[in-house]
Specification:
The protein has helices at residues 7-25, 32-39, 43-47, 53-65, 79-96, 107-112, 114-140, 150-170, 177-192. The chain is mostly helical. It has two domains: 7-50, Orthogonal Bundle (Arc Repressor Mutant, subunit A); 70-192, Tetracycline Repressor, domain 2 (Orthogonal Bundle).
Length: 196
């Protein structure tokens, strides 16, 4: 007897199918019908879980931006540990679901859905501020060089992750993202870590 899937399981399958369609055919080819066909269900069944295509895109964006670990510096950790763990968690998230990586680079999607572009910009600004705050704490604790510019380094940090993920996506995910990001992390930290 076949076990009936829960609503949450069906939603996850639909979002995964949507990501694959965007990856294989591009954002403009994503349709409710296409997702339903890929899952071998009716469009009506899919509409029980999503309002429309924008709802699907919105939930995909949430998967990328909000279902990740916050960069909270715990009392027993230093700034470099916090930043290092963040990079590791980003690598794990994308390696667990490589197709998530395509959402951050869908400029066509951003122009079609300005609300999603706004969500992306808001997420970026919050992440940048978190990094700046962590760096400033690290400077105060004497772990990070005083002469670094936290705002500039936050952009370099975020940009390095973004470019590394993009190159990995463009290679069809054919190497370890975690290994590559570990190399990037080591190089970045050389510039900010205090010599003890």
């Amino acid at each position: 007897m076949q076990v009936r899937k829960t609503s949450e399981e069906r939603k996850k399958e639909a979002l995964k199918a949507a990501l694959k369609i965007i990856y294989e055919k591009g954002f403009s080819k994503l349709t409710i019908r296409g997702i339903a066909e890929r899952l071998d269900i009716s469009e009506a069944a899919l509409y029980r879980h999503f309002d429309d295509k924008q709802d699907i895109i919105d939930q995909l964006t949430d998967l990328v931006f909000y279902q990740e670990c916050k960069m909270e510096e715990r009392d027993n950790e230093n700034a470099l540990t916090t930043l290092s763990e963040f990079i590791d968690k980003q690598a794990e998230k994308f390696e667990d679901n490589p197709f998530l990586s395509i959402i951050s680079f869908q400029f066509e999607m951003f122009s079609a859905y300005p609300e999603i572009k706004a969500k992306f910009i808001d997420h970026q600004a919050k992440r940048e501020q978190e990094i700046i705050d962590i760096l400033n704490k690290g400077i105060k604790k004497g772990l990070i060089k005083e002469d670094i510019n936290p705002a500039a380094f936050a952009q370099i940090f975020m940009g390095s992750i973004r470019v590394t993920v993009l190159k990995w996506k463009n290679s069809d995910f054919n190497y370890s993202l975690k290994d590559r990001l570990t190399d990037i992390k080591k190089e970045l930290f050389k510039y900010i870590e205090c010599d003890n």
